[in-house]
């Protein structure tokens, strides 16, 4: 049954590869590979050339990850397989980011070498009074999330009296129980799910407060595009919450022994790849719907300011002057912290400590 | 209205913001009672230092264009009084033209032309607002 474990990783590798392959289409045309360029340069042949190279290398990165997983299934008997499958996924991710960075660096060097901003006036345009934009929360996704959370809570409460004092809280990669705990732990899942959904909804509510600058060559059009993009991202946040809640609901079903037998755990585990595929489809769908459809035509020499100087490798945003805590990522899904903001640095350190702690706990638990 | 700042320009950013808000009031794009974004929101939208926006707002308040209130934020509220140094600045501007040898009538005509432009913009702005109102009523 260990195959399920590898299958999940293989599926995720394919989805990640597909997402990275599509990414250039999903990002604004004036930000190819995270490099800010003026609209007059979007059709430079060098960008198309880099794009072809990028896509080839991304497919290669995916294949390398899959090869590692294929190797893992051959080594099924050894204890290595547990580590090899995530290693395959991590390799693909690391290679994809490296490929992106290489393209980013090349394009940036060309842009700066040829001085693409020569003769242009770099400005920032903002509308006052700010256009009143309220948060958009899709009723469909909100309801679905509420139902999933209620379902989780109901199952835990209904099953609680019948549960033994100690319950299985963890299954290993081959669906064998390997962790036990007090039965109160059954309520941890709905609690965690609630926390997670709550923070995703909070982020969706915060979206209208994020930066609202406009493109000087097409202020109206860029405002409409931004509104469409924020609506799509809000839907994306709530649908991500729904998928996570669905996964938590499955886990609740297994741990509360609502469906008795280890085979059930395996069956439910097989649903995981399906849910992950749905999640990726939703990500691509909403990014596609929210994307800027075309470069704005410019009739003046006013362009959006070249803000590359604040981006390290096109991945990390560091701007001490900017009071914004969250900024849109230039390549990829979602937002990134302003590492020039004291709070941004604090949150980043907190997250790193959290991840390191979780890894340490996992390693320690594994060695016992 | 749109505020356009140019970080590469010689003119300080706070001055660019201040000048455009004053022109916005003159042209009717901003009227008494209009709310400006909070300092933090405007600085976030521009991606510039809070102090820069603060400086622009404080200058506008000192000059009697803006009221900064803790609760409602920044509200456009022209006081009808000219800033103390207004005459000195007008003097410099007119001196520039006169020193170049322009006739007094010519300079006055230019001034009148600019004022008529503001008036026309203001009429257009209020007509636009009127239309919006009737749209609201129809809805």
Summarize the structure.
The complex is a heterodimer of chains A (368) and B (139). Chain A has 368 residues and is mainly alpha-helical. Chain A contains eight helices and nine strands.
Name the features.
heterodimer, A: 368 residues, mainly alpha, three-stranded mixed β-sheet, two-stranded antiparallel ribbon, B: 139 residues, 10% strand
Q: How would you describe the overall organization of this protein?
A:
The complex is a heterodimer of chains A (368) and B (139). Chain A has helices spanning 3-26, 45-74, 81-113, 139-159, 188-206, 219-255, 262-290, 342-367; strands at residues 121-127, 166-171, 177-182, 213-214, 302-304, 311-312, 316-317, 326-328, 335-337. Chain A is mainly alpha-helical. The longest helix of chain A is centred in the middle third of the chain and has 37 residues, at 219-255. Chain A is globular and about 75 Å long. The two termini of chain A are 23 Å apart. Chain B is mainly alpha-helical and 139 residues long. Chain B is 60% helix and 10% strand. Chain B has a three-stranded antiparallel beta sheet with strand order 2-4-3. In chain B, a hairpin with a 3-residue loop joins strand 3 and strand 4 (73-76). In chain B, helix 1 crosses helix 3 and helix 2 crosses helix 3. The interface between A and B is medium-sized, with 26 and 26 residues. Strand 1 (121-127) of chain A pairs antiparallel with strand 1 (2-5) of chain B.
